[in-house]
Amino acid sequence: MKGHGPAYIRNTVAIVSGKGGVGKSTLSVMLAASLAERGYRIGLLDVDLHGPSMPVMLGMEGMRLSRDDHGIIPLQRGNLKAVSIGFMLEHTDDALIWRGPLKHQIICEFLTEVQWGPLDCLIIDVPPGTGDEPLTVMQMCNDLDGVFVVTTPQRASAVDVRRCVTFCRKLKVPILGLIENMHGIACPSCGEVFQVFPEGEGRRVSQEMHIDMLGSIPIDPALASSCDCGYCMSKGSSSYDAMKTIADQAAFIILEHKEEQHENSRTAH
Ligand SMILES: Nc1ncnc2c1ncn2[C@@H]1O[C@H](COP(=O)(O)OP(=O)(O)OP(=O)(O)O)[C@@H](O)[C@H]1O
Ligand SMILES: [Mg+2]
Fold first, then answer.
1. What is the pTM assigned to this prediction?
2. What is the pLDDT of residues 234-245, one digit of tens each?
3. Is 260 helix (H, G, I), strand (E, B) or coil?
4. What are the contacts of 194-197 at 24+ separation with CB within 8 A?
5. pLDDT 10s digits, 153-211
6. Is the CB of 215 under 6 A from ligand 1?
């Protein structure tokens, strides 16, 4: 494989949810940015072919991917490299009108033909559901270490998330943790937290399906506007600390813990 595989990419994780609009892309970008800020070399692969979010969320609208004889050259910002179909469309308003086989082909190309160079972690932003795109990622990405699952506190989200967990388990993909997004909103004047959705479904999914809960992120207007103009997370905003805690845990699970396991297995032999 060109520019891919264990020699180049230490860890690969995907961000999934059976449900659309729960914050998968937001969390993929925030996690990638947070890990890149800590000095890790991070790749961000957007396999949402019909609604690619990365150009807007990374503040890279209008930028285009190039390729040479060795494959696709990702766009780069600091320690973060990114690939998305959104960087290949001629105009922002262009829509990709493709059926399954073509989608399978381009995702396989993204998984094998990108010149990432050495990465500490590749984060894959996967579109909702249990159809073509998630299936291709889980079947074709041999190096996938596991997935983080995103839900909102609502039952309407949790029922789809449970299906997604079943889907991952059937495909023998480890579930590394659950993140609950849009958990309440703080009143800008008095700070009191209001619950927008009925509470508790995230916790219930975590307990009943035996998945570690990494944390909850509140609805935060500052986060919403940062998604619209690039990912600069405003320090001090209500989502910042929550995201930092989640990134700490994710870093431990996908980077440090795995390194420890490698070290232990090396010393055991
Ligand atoms: N905690 C939050 N506070 C405020 N806005 C948020 C939060 N999380 C996500 N959003 C906003 O909600 C919208 C949907 O988020 P996002 O695109 O990340 O969801 P998604 O799960 O990737 O959606 P899709 O299923 O369409 O890929 C975005 O406009 C984003 O800015
Ligand atoms: Mg998305």
1. 0.92
2. 667 778 888 889
3. helix
4. 195/153, 197/152, 197/153, 197/154
5. 999 899 999 999 999 999 999 999 999 999 998 777 877 788 888 778 899 999 999 99
6. no
Does 153 contact ligand 1 (Cβ within 6 A)?
A: no
Length of the chain as a residue count:
269
Residue nearest to atom 1 of ligand 1 (CA): 219
Q: Pick the atom of ligand 1 nearest to 225's CA.
A: 31
Kindly tell me the burial class for residue 210, based on how many C-beta atoms sit within 10 Å of its own C-beta (0-12, 13-18, 19 or more).
Answer: exposed
Element at 267 (helix H, strand E): helix 257-268
**How many whole angstroms separate alpha carbon 132 and alpha carbon 234?**
35
Dihedral sign (CA 153, 156, 158, 164): negative
Instruction: Please determine, for residue 36, whether its predicted confidence score (pLDDT) is greater than 90.
Output: yes
pLDDT average, residue stretch 92-99: 74
Q: Residue 150 CA: which ligand 1 atom is closest? A: 21
- Under DSSP, is residue 44 helix (H, G, I), strand (E, B) or coil? strand
Domains belonging to the chain, first-starting first, are 12-268 (3.40.50.300)
